[in-house]
């Protein structure tokens, strides 16, 4: 010991005795050139000992002025081996004017830090601080040493007390790093092994393997910012460390929007605070296990999930997915309640879309998310996006069994729990050899062993070192190691990790953040204030009673009492126009009603509901719906012109112009989190085409929100929307909206009393050609004396009388038949017809003449070049058919019309009793009974994906026995070689079982039964069938399709179909 050290030692020892006499808890140990060690017996004494530390500093300053000393404090009872280090510079050294270090040493440091996060390996130690201080004077000159510069910036973020272990001298550090050799780059196989180790399941490993050979894998892990993160979060943290070490580009999604959708676990008022809290906690956890967060990207969900592109895809996806599939996908993740909210059904779809919008190759999560991952694999390709890979971690059981959950206090250990609380929870947990898969052992397996491996430590009990969990478990079952010993070891390890997080969150700003994110009590977020409409109506020449009467005429239901109140202010009418079929003559009835609204002093908004029309069972294709809205609005303007209605107080909007905006979408998500599926289902059961789709549940929400965002106080629609208006009255106030006064207009019935052969048979188009108009009215159902269902009378009531306004309706008859009849209103006409005093033929002839007059000016306007262009964009003509013989001269050449290909729905599927690779399916193809078909798809399509799947069936094969089961058809699929991939063909959305699938240009009748007597006959017939680069099914480059669209596949391009 040097004279300086001896002097210091004796002096410090004296101070130690003085301190010890007043507090029996301290023991002074030793002084070295680098540090002074003091031993305390409890954590409390450590924090109350700064007087002693101050004395040490003072003595160091006087006795060893040129020495740099650090006070190292060891707490004997708090941890068994870890050092709590409180760095205190005793006397700052003079700044180095120049650091003498060779270029070779600098390169050695950079090479080392390329492969390791810290000097001692996986966590920050005093050595990191010593080296960073040494390099500080020259760090600005080391920009070309990118790894050293990155490491130095990262070390500056640490507080002094956060460094662990003992400090090496700078010479020792440089000597060690100088000898270190650069770790060789990992091969693609090694990358893959590191990425996939310790996972419960990997889906798409082949895709990952192909990527890592070419470039870094892009992967994301998402966490909903709900309850406080707990120690089970160390499981994903250790995998994130693996991903970073493997060179992956890792994104952490702070899923704030998902958190809100998950049954409102996190109120909107707290979400921002909780998102910041999660980010701080995740960074602290990664630092605790020695992982740099520099190359980690954090993304807040709302920053892109409220964007228009994302919202459009959300709408498109909702129109593809059934309510059943959405519930099934979220069953393990979304909180299940008796009356589920709509938001829980949106959750899986949004998580699937995140893969595309974060531009990643793979998603990482717990095995409890497997159904969501399969949902993403199924539906992303249908949106035109690439299928991603999925990596799943095991789920860590809680200390009381089951899943470790933030909402179950006794099942989890909070990251900010005190050391005593951690010890108490772990000691109280069951760890019995009779149940070796208990919560404590699971935690050892999935958290303790991986963390120890990262820190270069071993699991050691009573002198026995366990290098693997399996060996520990074996000895535990044999009672060679006790549960209490295991729990004691886990307590020490866990507290050593959590101490870093506790220190971090002892900072004032993070303390405050924790209080804001998780207050002791949560005040329910107040509903936004409804719009206060204090405007008074402008002066109007009509009195209020006359205005109410004018607004009330020609409605299918009496107006509500609130109409009078609204008219006394500034009435703003919203007319929502559905676009699910081409414009029909009922628009005349509604436009005539607009004339009444305007005359009563209202302002009118005409809304072409393009997005809602797509959500209504995909009746309108997404690619054309905006163009259809444009065409509709121009036709409505032409109709108003034909009826001499001024448009000064009328605005025309499309739903897509505001329903993709941030404010609207946020309101929509809020409403889905407050409205149950049952409420919305009741509102739309008789309104939309397919109430089983997820999009159907959004339909009433959006109609209600349209009232709020278009600032309407009167909502006008056809009578079928009555239950949607009732829904809006109840639900709109939940998001700060004031429900409108609903007005219900006419709803035209079908022209026929039988099923229509084609959809346009049922209605008269707004620009119907005269020849078709005459044909339709002639064939319309008009039974003599029948006034209960009479489409011709409905035309008179709902179209002609509103168009006439004050003129009389005249039925032209010959003198022999009683002469002309004139009617001022509909009621006398209806009564006369019911008494069979007006013949249907006379009524039809008069209706035809009136309809000609009504339609002619509108049709003329529609024939302008501008309108024709809009029409062709909205309803593009079908591709020209390829003219050609259906059969060649020889009569045996194959043409695709010979195939009877039908849309089928798999209503039942099971494994073949005698063949493991075969499914036995019951498929509905529109026949009285489902067909039995055997398919070899077991290896390629999971059984749960086959159930209820829409497929393409080759239905005119001769039935054949397949291992004892007679198969009456074939499911057509695209296939690829090595590795073998098979994907069933997909009918377009909206297809019904039994629809025939045709090849473009070949529409002849199918053969009753295909001639497949020759063994290779079917293979030759199928030779021209394959998918193209756009994933469309083709035969010799001619596409396959139904009236609803084209046949496609999920992902196989240029693949044969068989």
From TrEMBL:
Class in the EC hierarchy, top level: ligase
Where is this protein found? Cytoplasm; Nucleus
**Primary location recorded for the protein, binned into one broad class:** cytoplasm
Keywords from UniProt, A to Z, are: Aminoacyl-tRNA synthetase, ATP-binding, Cytoplasm, Ligase, Nucleotide-binding, Nucleus, Protein biosynthesis, RNA-binding, tRNA-binding
Q: What EC number(s) does this enzyme carry?
A: 6.1.1.1
GO cellular component annotations, sorted alphabetically? cytoplasm; nucleus
Molecular function (GO) terms for this protein are: ATP binding; tRNA binding; tyrosine-tRNA ligase activity
Q: Where is the signal peptide?
A: none
Give any Pfam family that matches: tRNA_bind
Q: Which reaction does it catalyse?
A: tRNA(Tyr) + L-tyrosine + ATP = L-tyrosyl-tRNA(Tyr) + AMP + diphosphate + H(+)
Q: Work out whether the entry's keyword set contains tRNA-binding.
A: yes
Stretch list, region Disordered? 870-889
InterPro entries found in the cross-reference section: aa-tRNA-synth_Ic, Glutathione-S-Trfase_C_sf, NA-bd_OB-fold, Rossmann-like_a/b/a_fold, tRNA-bd_dom, Tyr-tRNA-ligase, Tyr-tRNA_synthase
Annotated Gene3D superfamilies: 1.20.1050.10, HUPs, Nucleic acid-binding proteins, Tyrosyl-Transfer RNA Synthetase
Per UniProt, residues of the TRNA-binding domain are 895-998
PROSITE patterns (alphabetical): TRBD
- Give one GO biological process term: tyrosyl-tRNA aminoacylation
Similarity section: Belongs to the class-I aminoacyl-tRNA synthetase family.
What name does the UniProt record give this protein?
A: Tyrosine--tRNA ligase
Source species, please?
Portunus trituberculatus (Swimming crab)
């Amino acid at each position: 010991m040097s004279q300086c050290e001896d002097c210091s030692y004796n002096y410090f020892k004296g101070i130690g005795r003085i301190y010890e006499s007043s507090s029996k808890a301290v023991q002074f140990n030793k002084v070295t050139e680098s540090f002074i060690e003091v031993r305390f017996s409890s954590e409390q004494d450590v924090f109350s000992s700064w007087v002693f530390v101050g004395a040490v500093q003072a003595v160091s300053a006087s006795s060893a002025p040129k020495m740099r000393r650090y006070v190292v404090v060891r707490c004997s009872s708090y941890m068994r081996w870890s050092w709590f280090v409180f760095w205190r510079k005793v006397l700052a050294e003079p700044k180095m004017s120049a650091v003498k270090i060779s270029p070779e040493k600098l390169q050695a440091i950079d090479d080392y830090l390329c492969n390791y996060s810290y000097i001692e390996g996986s966590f920050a130690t005093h050595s990191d601080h010593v080296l960073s201080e040494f390099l500080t004077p020259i760090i600005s000159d080391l920009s070309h040493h990118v790894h050293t510069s990155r490491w130095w910036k990262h070390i500056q973020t640490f507080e002094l007390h956060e460094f662990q272990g003992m400090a090496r001298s700078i010479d020792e550090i440089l000597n060690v790093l100088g000898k270190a050799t650069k770790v060789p780059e990992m091969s693609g196989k090694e990358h893959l092994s590191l990425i996939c180790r310790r996972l419960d399941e990997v889906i798409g490993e082949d895709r990952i393997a192909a990527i890592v050979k070419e470039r870094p894998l892009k992967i994301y892990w998402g966490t909903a910012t709900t309850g406080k993160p707990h120690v089970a979060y160390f499981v994903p943290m250790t995998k994130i460390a693996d991903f970073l070490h493997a060179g992956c580009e890792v994104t952490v999604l702070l899923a704030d929007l998902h958190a809100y959708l998950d049954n409102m676990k996190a109120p909107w008022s707290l979400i921002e605070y909780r998102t910041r809290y999660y980010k701080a906690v995740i960074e602290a956890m990664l630092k605790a296990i020695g992982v740099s967060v520099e190359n980690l990207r954090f993304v807040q969900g709302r920053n892109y999930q409220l964007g228009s592109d994302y919202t459009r895809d959300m709408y498109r996806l909702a129109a593809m997915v059934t309510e059943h599939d959405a519930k099934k996908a979220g069953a393990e993740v979304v909180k299940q309640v008796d009356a589920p909210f709509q938001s829980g059904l949106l959750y899986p779809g949004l998580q699937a879309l995140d893969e595309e919008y974060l531009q990643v190759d793979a998603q990482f999560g717990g095995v409890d998310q497997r159904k969501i991952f399969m949902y993403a694999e199924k539906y992303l390709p249908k949106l035109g996006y690439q299928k991603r890979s999925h990596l799943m971690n095991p789920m860590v059981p809680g200390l009381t069994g089951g899943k470790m959950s933030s909402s179950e206090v006794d099942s989890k250990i909070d990251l900010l729990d005190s050391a005593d609380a951690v010890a108490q929870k772990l000691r109280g947990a069951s760890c019995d050899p009779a149940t070796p898969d208990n919560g404590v052992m699971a935690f050892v397996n999935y958290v303790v062993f991986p963390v120890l491996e990262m820190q270069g430590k071993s699991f050691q009990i009573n002198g026995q070192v366990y290098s693997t969990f399996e060996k520990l478990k074996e000895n535990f079952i044999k009672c060679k190691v006790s549960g209490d010993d295991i729990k004691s070891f886990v307590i020490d390890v866990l507290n050593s990790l959590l101490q870093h997080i506790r220190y971090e969150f002892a900072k004032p700003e993070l303390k405050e953040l924790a209080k804001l994110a998780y207050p002791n009590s949560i005040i329910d977020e107040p509903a936004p204030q409804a719009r206060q409409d204090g405007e008074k109506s402008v002066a109007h020449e009509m009195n209020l009673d006359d205005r109410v009467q004018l607004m009330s005429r020609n409605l299918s239901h009496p107006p509500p009492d609130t109409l009078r109140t609204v008219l006394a202010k500034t009435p703003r009418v919203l007319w929502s126009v559905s676009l699910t079929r081409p414009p029909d003559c009922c628009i005349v009835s509604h436009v005539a009603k607009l004339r009444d609204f305007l005359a009563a002093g209202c302002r009118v908004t005409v809304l072409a509901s393009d997005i809602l029309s797509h959500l209504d069972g995909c009746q309108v294709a997404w690619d054309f719906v905006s163009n259809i809205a444009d065409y509709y609005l121009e036709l409505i303007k032409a109709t108003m012109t034909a009826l001499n209605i001024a448009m000064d107080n009328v605005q025309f909007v499309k739903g897509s112009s505001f329903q993709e905006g941030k404010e609207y979408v946020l309101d929509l998500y809020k409403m889905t989190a407050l409205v149950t599926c049952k409420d919305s289902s009741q509102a739309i059961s008789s309104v939309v085409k397919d109430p089983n789709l997820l999009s159907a549940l959004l339909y009433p929400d959006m109609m209600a929100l349209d009232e709020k965002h278009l600032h309407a106080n009167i909502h006008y629609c056809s009578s079928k929307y009555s239950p949607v208006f009732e829904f809006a009255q109840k639900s709109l106030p939940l998001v700060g909206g004031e429900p409108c006064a609903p007005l219900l207009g006419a709803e035209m019935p079908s022209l026929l009393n039988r099923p229509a052969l084609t959809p346009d048979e049922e209605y008269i188009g707004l620009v119907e050609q005269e020849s078709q108009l005459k044909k339709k009215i002639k064939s319309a159902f008009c039974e003599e004396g029948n006034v209960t269902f009479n489409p011709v009378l409905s035309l008179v009531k709902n179209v002609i009388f509103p168009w006439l306004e004050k003129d009389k309706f005249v039925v032209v008859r010959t003198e022999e038949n009683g002469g002309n009849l004139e009617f001022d209103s509909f009621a006398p006409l209806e009564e006369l017809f019911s008494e069979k005093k007006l013949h249907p033929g006379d009524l039809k002839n008069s209706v035809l003449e009136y309809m000609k007059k009504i339609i002619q000016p509108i049709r003329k306007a529609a024939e302008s070049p501008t309108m024709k262009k809009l029409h062709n964009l909205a309803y593009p003509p079908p591709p020209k058919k390829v003219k050609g013989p259906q059969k060649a001269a020889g009569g045996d050449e194959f043409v695709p019309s010979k195939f009877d290909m039908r849309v089928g729905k798999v209503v039942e599927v099971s494994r073949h009793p005698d063949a493991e690779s075969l499914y036995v399916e019951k498929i509905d193809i529109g026949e009285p009974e489902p067909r039995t078909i055997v398919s070899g798809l077991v290896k390629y399509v999971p059984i749960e994906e086959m159930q209820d799947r829409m497929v393409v069936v080759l239905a005119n094969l001769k039935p054949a026995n397949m291992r004892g089961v007679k198969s009456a058809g074939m499911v057509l699929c695209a296939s690829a070689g090595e590795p073998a991939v098979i994907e069933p063909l997909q009918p377009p959305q909206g297809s019904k079982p039994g629809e025939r699938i045709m090849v473009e240009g070949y529409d002849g009748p199918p053969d009753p039964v295909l001639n497949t007597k020759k063994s290779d006959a079917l293979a030759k017939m199928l030779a021209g069938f394959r998918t193209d680069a756009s994933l469309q099914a083709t035969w010799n480059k001619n596409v396959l399709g139904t009236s609803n669209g084209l046949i496609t596949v999920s992902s196989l391009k240029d693949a044969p179909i068989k």
